[in-house]
Design brief:
CATH superfamily of the largest domain in chain A: Formyl transferase, N-terminal domain
Strand order of the largest sheet of chain A: 3-2-1-4-5-6-7
Number of helices of chain A: 6
Oligomer: homodimer
Structural class of chain A: alpha/beta
Strand content of chain A: 15-25%
Number of strands of chain A: 9
Helix content of chain A: 25-40%
Shape of chain A: globular
CATH topology of the largest domain in chain A: Rossmann fold
CATH architecture of the largest domain in chain A: 3-Layer(aba) Sandwich
Radius of gyration of chain A: 16 Å
């Protein structure tokens, strides 16, 4: 089974979606470790409940971002992790992690990128007045929310939506999308054509 | 019946979608005039076939953009047009048209704005590697493809899509979307909240 590492900062609902997909047989992988940069993050309890090793690596314990990043990379490499999944991880990924896991770090973002990168994507979407938004799973590179897109799902935006109600509707799609995207990246034979993520057998 | 004017530059497939929606009773409006800035545009034949008045107002006959724009605005105002629909109209709309038809000019664009404004939106989407794109109907203001969004529809982007195959899939949605958006704008009671287009009864 390919080993996956998951990085969290909070309650880890997308971590739970990955745990559930593995339990259901929808995702052929093993979560080797869940790392939180925040002590006591709710997602750590979810991991322990599923029998997954947990680590807290607090960015406050490191004097530079690179030192923090290197500590995470070392912990993941030691455990022979093949793919790293960010699941509500609220720190930027730095060069040591990108060097240790080239095109092997995934993030999920609550908009149809390239629209509304950065924080508060759902509030940005509401303020802009879009009628369709969604969720994006992408490979992490040096640009904020800018890496090659693995999978996207759209959701309708209603006139009476708030950032909160839209967030909930997008989150439902996130929980479906993330395990599917992890499957696609763990599959053999995908390639990047320019910045396009293309599967070995073009099935859409 | 509220009167609509349609501006075209080419074959006018979205004009045809509006003509068909009126014929089917899906759109309660009358197209009072179709104006082309290009003599011999294919859409003029479609208009004549439907018994609609046609005009050619060539931008080449005017020394400034404002003069051209004023000529179009005059022709539309004379015919008591309430709403202007751009349907493959390849000139920028200037201030005289915006002044004559405030929040009463619609455009359709082959992407999920704010992603991929400007020309070759479908090729931009392919190059960026998005997995979801679509079509947007928006009110025209002074910004390129930047006005308040009335309606959007998403389409899947497949690994083997080209700009051409994606364009065809988006065009299908455009033909469904544009008449529906015209209905919504002709309905009483919608309002702009910031840049959000909100219907009187929030039904999504």
């Amino acid at each position: 089974m390919p080993k996956v590492g998951v990085l969290i900062s909070g309650r880890g609902s997308n971590l739970q979606a990955l745990i559930d997909a593995i339990a259901d047989g929808r995702l052929a992988a093993r979560i080797a470790v869940v790392i939180s940069n925040k002590p006591g993050a709710g997602g750590l309890d979810r991991a322990r409940a599923a029998g997954i090793e947990t680590l807290t690596i607090s960015h406050r314990d490191y004097s530079t971002r690179d030192a923090f990043d290197t500590a995470m990379a070392s912990a993941l490499v030691e455990r022979r992790v093949r793919l790293v999944c960010l699941a509500g991880f609220m720190r930027l990924i730095g060069q040591p992690m990108l060097d240790a896991f080239p095109n092997a770090i995934l993030n999920i973002h609550p908009s149809l990128l390239p629209a509304f990168p950065g924080t508060d994507a759902q509030a940005q979407a509401i303020a802009h007045g879009v009628k369709v938004s969604g969720a994006t799973v992408h490979l992490v590179n040096g640009e904020l929310d800018g890496g090659p897109i693995v999978l996207q799902a759209s959701v309708e935006v209603c006139d009476d939506d708030t950032a909160e109600s839209l967030s909930l509707r997008i989150l439902e799609q996130e929980h479906r999308l993330y395990p599917e995207a992890v499957c696609r990246v763990l599959e053999a034979g995908w390639r990047l054509v320019g910045r396009r993520f293309v599967r070995s057998v073009a099935t859409g």
